[in-house]
Every structure is written in C-alpha cells, then in structure tokens.
Amino acid sequence: MKIVYPSLVEDAYNIAAQEGTIIPGKENDVKAQIYRIMVQKGMLNEDGSPTQKAIDKGFVASFSQNEHGEYEPDTVAGLKRMYPMYEGYSDDHFIQTENGWAADSYVIRGVANQVLGDPDSTESQRQTAYAMLRQLEKYPK
Question: Which domain of life, per UniProt (predicted)?
C-alpha cells in the first residue's frame, strides 16, 4: 500500500535522501519517523496539516483558515506543494472559492484516472475515483 505523507514530510525526506543513504525498502519507515518527529515538535497536527508554528517559521507557504477551521494554501503553488498530484496541471485549472480550492473537470478526470491506473491504490481510493467520474458524467460540458 502506498502511503501519502504531508508535503512537509516529503520535503524533509527528500532533504534526508540527498544528504545520506536510505536503505531500499525502508522509505516509508523513514517518512513515518519524520512524521512522528514533526508532530512531536509541533510542526504538524496529527491529521498532517501544518501548525501555526510551522507557518510562523516559514516552513510552509502562506495559509488561510477557512470557515471550517481548516488551513488552506493562499496560492495555487502552495496547493500544488501540499498536494503533489496537482503539479502537472496548469494553474488556470484551479480557482479559489469561499469554500476552498476547486479544480476543473480536466484535473478531476486526470487525478481519478491516475488513481485507477495505480496498482498501489486502495479499494477506497478506487471507489472514490469512480464516484468522481460518475459525477462528471452528470455534468457534461
């Protein structure tokens, strides 16, 4: 199973991988340890979202708190750092609304197909992808 870690964990892992050798097959163990340390040091909440401390220290892009009390990036670049699956899409496919960030059908279809084509995706992820594609069928262009 492929585990998706928060962007701060992935960034820290990439730095660690550049500075040293990580035993093949132990990547998830290292990322899990980085995650635990970041939660312990108050840089991440347990749900993986950055804390105010991480924002204040400049470890993450600028975030705003939405009406649900969740932090969201202020820019598309921040959104793409937080969710690397969006990196390959042009910024004009995203819009920030009062309810948070939204992606157009091109991105939704692309992400759903990535999940369906990934042999490591879970059954739950595949079911979500199928549901997203069914929703798109209801609202053709």
Answer: Bacteria
